[in-house]
UniProtKB/TrEMBL annotation:
Enzyme class: oxidoreductase
Enzyme Commission identifier(s): 1.14.12.17
Cofactor: FAD; heme b
Keywords (A to Z) from UniProt: Detoxification, FAD, Flavoprotein, Heme, Iron, Metal-binding, NAD, NADP, Oxidoreductase, Oxygen transport, Transport
Chain's role: Is involved in NO detoxification in an aerobic process, termed nitric oxide dioxygenase (NOD) reaction that utilizes O(2) and NAD(P)H to convert NO to nitrate, which protects the bacterium from various noxious nitrogen compounds. Therefore, plays a central role in the inducible response to nitrosative stress.
Site (Influences the redox potential of the prosthetic heme and FAD groups): 87, 395
Residues given in the record as NADP(+) binding sites: 279-284
Name under which the protein is recorded: Flavohemoprotein
InterPro entries: FAD-bd_FR_type, FNR_nucleotide-bd, Globin, Globin-like_sf, Globin/Proto, Hmp, OxRdtase_FAD/NAD-bd, Riboflavin_synthase-like_b-brl
Taxon lineage: Bacteria, Bacillati, Bacillota, Bacilli, Bacillales
Organism: Halobacillus andaensis
Family: Belongs to the globin family. Two-domain flavohemoproteins subfamily. In the C-terminal section; belongs to the flavoprotein pyridine nucleotide cytochrome reductase family.
Cofactor mode of binding and number, as noted: Binds 1 FAD per subunit. Binds 1 heme b (iron(II)-protoporphyrin IX) group per subunit.
A GO BP entry: response to toxic substance
Gene3D superfamilies: Globins, Nucleotide-binding domain of ferredoxin-NADP reductase (FNR) module, Translation factors
Name of encoding gene: hmp
């Protein structure tokens, strides 16, 4: 499927892998700075908060590193390409963006490597980048076609009206969205997300944010549930979420792209399901749980949620209701910092393996999502428990980071 590269190009690219590993992030940080300086219009597409936090350069460095390792067999990176391409489709990344990225990546490699960047290396990387870009463009094209051709589907952004706004906790608010054109909307897989295009009053560029859909499909609306971040280093995404919480109300318009994502409920399996979420990471799990309840599923469901305390714990009422309504649903709550008024929780502190073993079955499909440290803890716990990889599903929101 990819352009044929010469043996020399392949060898040159492969021999730069160790150098890339050393300078990968410096190269991509440099690259973004130069590219945005010359092409500020691209700020409409990239999440600038991820740039500031260094997550985007790290993710690109990882992707480039992986591609370089497999340049003679790009098929091997298709699973990674697929996930990134899914995000790109959701962000409306177009083929014409690739040559711009390629140009600045080469400039950055040259600048960071200095004298070590020979003409041969730059030429080989130019060709290799072209081959990698072709793979992405092709995979993304198929995804654009599917998004458009499905019933109720569309390309790019479609205006949705906020028809209902509901406070779910002190920090999380839900927005119910229906298409302004009154048309139908496609179903989605529980766990998928949309991209919202937000225009802040005093910003020149639009801001794109991806939010998991938090209700089941097939209801005529999409629901997102947004945490108001405080803009600190740990929660840098303050501007957009604060704007949504404070300024976006019923009747307002939010342009969104069609649902996307590779993290979703395996509806084929009949195994028990264990959802493990931290904070606002519970949103995709809510969609999956709602789906199972809507379908009267007889799979055993364990909804394990970690939160600081009862005030920031969203969807408490819904989950309690599901638990009462369906004997197959069990909820387990972990509070890291419970308030004296909090009575209804199962563990104080953090989730750990010993406790998990006592409350959920091993022979289950596990889904987890939450802050980075939480994801590492849960991933390590499931590894130590020996849960087979195929039964473990997770999603990082934002650029892909390593769980190790
Ligand atoms: N589809 C997706 O992939 C989605 C992903 N997310 C992600 O979920 C995250 C949620 O963040 P937020 O609501 O701020 O979460 P919080 O910071 O509120 O954390 C939630 C809970 O996890 C606990 N926790 C933190 N670190 C660890 C650890 N190492 N081991 C065990 N428990 C831990 C916290 O404890 P403590 O109080 O001690 O820190 C707290 O009780 C965001 O990073 C967001 O990007 C969100 C929505 C969707």
């Amino acid at each position: 499927m990819a352009t044929q590269l010469s043996e020399k190009t392949i060898q040159t690219v492969k021999s730069t892998v160790p150098v890339l590993a050393e300078h990968g992030e410096a190269i991509t940080t440099h690259f973004y700075q130069r590219m945005f300086a010359d092409h500020p219009e691209l700020k409409n597409i990239f999440n600038m908060t991820n740039q500031k936090a260094g997550r985007q350069p790290r993710a690109l460095a990882n992707a480039v590193y992986a591609a370089a390792q497999h340049i003679d067999n790009l098929e091997a990176i298709l699973p990674t390409v697929d996930q990134i391409a899914e995000k790109h489709r959701s962000l409306n990344v177009k083929p014409e963006h690739y040559p711009i990225v390629g140009e600045y990546l080469l400039v950055a490699i040259k600048e960071v490597l200095g004298d070590a960047a020979t003409d041969d290396i730059i030429e080989a990387w130019g060709e290799a980048y072209g081959a990698i870009a072709d793979v992405f463009i092709q995979v993304e094209q198929e995804k654009y076609n599917k998004a458009k051709e499905q019933e109720g589907g569309w390309l790019g952004y479609r205006d949705f009206t906020v028809v209902k706004k509901v406070k779910e906790s002190d920090v999380i608010t839900s927005f119910y969205l229906e298409p302004k054109d009154g048309g139908i909307i496609p179903p989605f897989r529980p766990g998928q997300y949309i991209t919202a295009q937000v225009s802040l009053p005093d910003s020149e560029y639009t801001q794109l944010r991806q939010y998991s859909l938090s209700d089941a499909p097939g209801k005529g609306y999409y629901r997102i549930s947004v945490k108001r971040e405080d803009g600190s280093e740990e929660q840098p995404d303050g501007v957009v979420s604060t704007f949504l919480h404070e300024q976006v109300n019923e009747g307002d318009i939010l342009p969104i792209t069609a649902p996307a994502g590779e993290f979703y409920l395996n509806e084929e399996s009949t195994n028990p399901v264990v959802f493990i979420s931290g904070g606002v990471g519970l949103t995709p799990m809510m969609s999956m749980l709602n789906r199972l309840v809507d379908q009267d599923s007889d799979r055993d469901v364990y909804f394990v949620h970690a939160s600081q305390n009862g005030e920031v714990h969203a969807f408490k009422g819904d989950i309690a209701q599901f638990e009462e309504q369906a004997s197959s649903v069990q909820s387990k709550v972990v509070y890291s910092d419970p308030h004296p008024s909090d009575a209804d929780y199962d563990k104080k502190g953090h989730i750990d393996l010993e406790w998990l073993k006592a409350v959920v079955p091993y022979d289950a499909e596990f889904y987890f999502c939450g802050p980075e440290g939480f994801m590492r803890t849960v991933n390590a716990a499931l590894n130590d428990w020996g849960v087979p990889e195929g039964q473990v599903h997770y999603e990082f929101f934002g650029p892909e980071l390593s769980l190790q």
